[in-house]
Amino acid sequence: MTHHLTSEELVEFREIFNLVDRDRGGSITKVELGELMDTLGIDTSPEEIDLMIHEIDQDSNGEIDFDEFVAVMSRKVNATYTADQVKNAFKAFEGNASAPGFIKADKLLVALTTYGADKISPEQAQELISQVLA
Known about the structure:
Blueprint: H1 7-20, E1 27-28, H2 30-39, H3 46-56, E2 64-65, H4 66-77, H5 83-94, H6 105-114, H7 122-133
Antiparallel strand pairs: 1-2
């Protein structure tokens, strides 16, 4: 199933792209990608940065332009998960709960505020959990 990006998604991608494209050159350079990884706390070697650029850079100019950025980001938006992937993710947070099939509220709070592209604030997570438990 093909997912067409909404105008809101494109605006969000542009905002993210502009944050990474610090020199406003219209593309993400190796240096800018390296700075992003450092900011995210992801230790990457120059070779790993080169590989990332190479995988995304469709026109082989050594940089990531907005269209290339959108192409890779839209793959993430279009990602679908198999039942096994969802079960495995659930099991990772389920831990040693006394009742299988349940996630403790504190573990769910950590998951919602720490992992994935759609992290939410601790306050939002607490409100969501409170609504579920009510």
